[in-house]
Design goal:
The protein has about 350 residues and is an alpha/beta fold. The chain folds into two domains: about 180 residues, Rossmann fold, CATH 3.40.50; about 170 residues, RecF/RecN/SMC, N-terminal domain (Glutathione S-transferase Yfyf (Class Pi), Chain A, domain 2, Up-down Bundle). It is built from twelve helices and 15 strands. The strands form three sheets. A six-stranded antiparallel β-sheet has the order 2-1-4-5-6-7, covered by helices on one side. The longest helix has about 35 residues. The two termini are about 25 Å apart.
Length: about 350
């Protein structure tokens, strides 16, 4: 699976971009602030109907325009025609289309174009709170377990209702009416996540061994968010007083985490910035490998400024791992020569300057 033709209108400083991508490797080079990262952001918008740089589309739309639009053609093995996809944001309204029909949910869009991106904000997987690691974990579960999304939505709805009852101080009877719905879905979510981690972690460790010295000291543990040795209804009942005082539910899959440690210490406190980047590369590449095993198709991989904080040897190691994915890869660099030594096979190169993207033939 790969993106063939991409058309971008009015995203940040990009100016009417219309290009055909290689199904293998694509290198975009140019000076800082030329629009390289905005190009990757546009593809992320196309895949998920949201930016990885801003929470609001109004900050993504070019200041001279009143809308943004990204369209693309997905080419997939076994299909005799490309699948058109598109996202448009205009006057505060979002429109999504894929394969000739309008979509109502971003989850429908995500199933068409699974994209994984490595960029500077990925450092937050190690340095920030559990929600970033839950998001990483649930991306994988969503793409390999079709039932997960329904259970997660039901759980979130019940959790919101229980928290509202807690905040309104309606009493234990009004709060506990939601406990059975929470329990049923919490257990399903836990099983899906645990099963996924059991498959992901060996692949993750194998990738880490290829990228990092002393990888044997790195440990990753899935933490469910509550003591799964106990009945979840009993856990909720036992924590009611604490929940009532603070106005929210303290235990459950919404509190899950991946504990990532090096020699027993939180990874971001032990590793240098370059080592953190390598560990994150291992995390994301392993996720792509597991996805391919389940779906029999590759992800599209976006990589922003790989050489930042990495030396020649480690760039070479990451590129070797990426090549194992047999995936379409779209990478940025400040100079044309920065990545070409690592890309001897079929690839396309594009120059980005002041928002214009031009193929270098």
């Amino acid at each position: 699976m790969s993106l063939q033709r991409v058309v971008i209108d009015h995203i940040r400083n990009l100016q009417d971009v219309s290009i055909d991508l290689s199904a293998h490797l694509n290198i975009l080079f140019g000076e800082n602030a030329s629009g390289k990262t905005s190009f990757l952001e546009s593809l992320h918008v196309l895949a998920y109907a949201k930016s990885f740089r801003s929470h609001h589309f109004r900050h993504v739309v070019n200041h001279d325009a009143h809308f943004l639009r990204v369209t693309g053609q997905i080419v997939e093995a076994g299909r005799d025609h490309a699948i058109p996809v598109g996202v448009e944001y205009r006057h505060g309204r979002l429109k999504m289309r894929a394969d000739g029909r309008n979509l109502k949910k971003t989850s429908e869009l995500a199933q068409h174009l699974p994209i994984i991106i490595i960029h500077q904000e990925c450092q937050r997987l190690l340095t920030d709170g559990p929600k970033f690691r839950r998001k990483f974990l649930d991306w994988g579960v969503f793409h390999v377990e079709q039932r997960f999304l329904n259970n997660w939505r039901r759980y979130v709805r019940a959790l919101k209702q229980r928290n509202r009852a807690l905040q309104a101080r309606k009493g234990k009877a009004a709060v506990s009416v939601w406990d059975q719905e929470l329990k049923e879905n919490a257990l399903a979510i836990h099983v899906y996540r645990q099963t996924y981690c059991d498959e992901l972690l060996p692949v993750w460790h194998a990738c880490t061994r290829q990228l990092l010295a002393d990888s044997e000291t790195i440990s990753v543990a899935y933490q469910s968010g509550w003591d799964t040795e106990q009945d979840y209804s009993e856990v909720l009942a036992a924590s009611y007083e604490q929940d009532a005082r603070r106005g929210f539910t303290h235990q459950g899959p919404h509190r899950a985490d991946l504990a990532i440690r090096v020699a027993g210490v939180a990874a971001h406190e032990h590793l240098s910035r370059g080592q953190q980047k390598l560990l994150i590369c291992a995390m994301l590449i392993s996720q792509a490998l597991v996805y391919r095993q389940h779906s029999q198709r590759p992800c599209v991989f976006l990589v922003d400024d790989l050489k930042a904080e990495l030396d020649h040897e480690h760039v070479e190691r990451v590129m070797a791992l990426l090549s194992e994915l047999d995936a379409q890869i779209i990478m940025t660099a400040t100079e044309k020569e920065a990545l070409e030594p690592y890309s001897p096979g079929e690839h396309k190169t594009f120059h980005v300057e002041r928002g214009q993207v031009t193929e270098v033939v």
